[in-house]
Every structure is written in structure tokens, then in C-alpha cells.
Amino acid sequence: MYLKRLEVRGFKSFASATRFDLEPGVTAIVGPNGSGKSNVVDALTWVMGEQGARALRGGKMEDVIFAGTSSRPALGRAQVSLTIDNSDEVLPIEYTEVTISRTLFRSGASEYAINGTACRLLDIQELLSDTGMGRQMHVIVGQGQLDRILQATPEDRRSFIEEAAGVLKFRRRKEKTERKLAALEANLLRLSDLTKEVS
Ligand code: ATP
């Protein structure tokens, strides 16, 4: 899957609108310590639906919004857009180019969009879930993450493989359906008790 473009504005150290055009091949981001290289990866993780502040190296989600510097006031919102080339139809959507966007306001409100149309976080997660870039993505290997994978419990390792294979989405749906079935069975039992009582 070819990630074509990443646009950030008000996200972490990127106060101004910044656009990364990712040409085919290998892209390397270089810079001194603390200059914001990892923030670019955080922006990628975030726009693809990351919900954990810790995974984004912050204490709370609001920490992704530009907090201001001595020369620049803090901003009220963080916005990231990622454009994916879909000419190989790897995403189940009828567009050759797909832009997913995420905005977070200081009030805590969030907005998500696919190709400019507002959507739910779940829509973005489902769109990406068969690509290995979903909720628990394993295509971004962060510092120290290899150790975590190597030391994972058999259950966690199974869940990594299931996510990569696109099975996890169906497991979640199955679990949801099983919960509904159990509730239905309880209702049926109650109905049968009531019927016995009145007959
Ligand atoms: P290293 O090479 O040491 O890993 P790096 O280039 O990857 O560094 P990052 O960790 O991406 O750097 O960026 C850290 C910088 O981002 C710090 O200067 C930090 O102050 C800044 N930063 C993080 N969050 C925010 C925020 N919400 N507002 C403003 N600046 C922020």
C-alpha cells in the first residue's frame, strides 16, 4: 500500500500546515534530537485511529495539540490527513485515492472524514482493518516495539497475527453477535417462564 501524502497542522511540534509528499521508494526523515521526527510517525499512527495517548507518547489525548512555544501561542486543534493511493484497490472503497482525516479540538470533540465526508472512527478502522494498518497496527515499528513483540505472550502473538491476516475484525463481530444471542436466549427463557405462569 502506497502512502502518498501526509498533511499536519497544529499536531505536536507542527504548528503550521506542513505537507510531506512521499515519493515511491524509501523515505528517510533526518534531523537533530527533539526536532520532531517521531512526531511524524505519531501523526501517521493518530490519523489511522490510535486511541491511546500513551502510544502517542503523551499523557492525555489533548497533548497532541500544539501546546505553544515562547514565540507562538498554543493552538485550539490538531488536524492530520493521510492520502493513500488506492489504484491497486487494497482498500474496499471505490476511489483510486483515499484521504482520511482526523481533527481534535481542545474541547475534546473529534471529527473524522474519508475523502472529505464526515464519518465515524469505526469507519476508518474498518476501512484499514484488512491492511494491517488498523487499530493495533504492526506496520509501524516504533522504538522498543520489536522487544515487545519478541516477548509477547502466546495470546498477544496470536492477536498480532490475526490482525495482520484480517481475522480480528471477524472475531470482534462474532463476539458482538454472541453477546446479542446470549441476551436473546435470556429473554426467551423469561418469556417461557411468563407463559407458564399465565397458562
Ligand atoms: P529523537 O531523535 O530524540 O527521538 P525526534 O526528532 O524524534 O527526537 P520528537 O520526539 O518527534 O523528536 O519531537 C519532540 C519535540 O516535539 C519536543 O521538542 C517536544 O517539545 C515537541 N512537542 C511534542 N508535543 C508537542 C506539542 N503538543 N506542542 C508543541 N511541541 C510539542
From TrEMBL:
Transmembrane segments: none annotated. Residues 167-199 form a coiled coil. ATP binds at P32, N33, G34, S35, G36, K37, S38, N39. It comes from the Bacteria. Contains large globular domains required for ATP hydrolysis at each terminus and a third globular domain forming a flexible hinge near the middle of the molecule. These domains are separated by coiled-coil structures. Required for chromosome condensation and partitioning. This is Chromosome partition protein Smc. It comes from Micrococcoides hystricis. The lineage of its organism: Bacteria, Bacillati, Actinomycetota, Actinomycetes, Micrococcales. The gene is smc. The chain holds residues 1 to 199 of 1192 of the full protein.
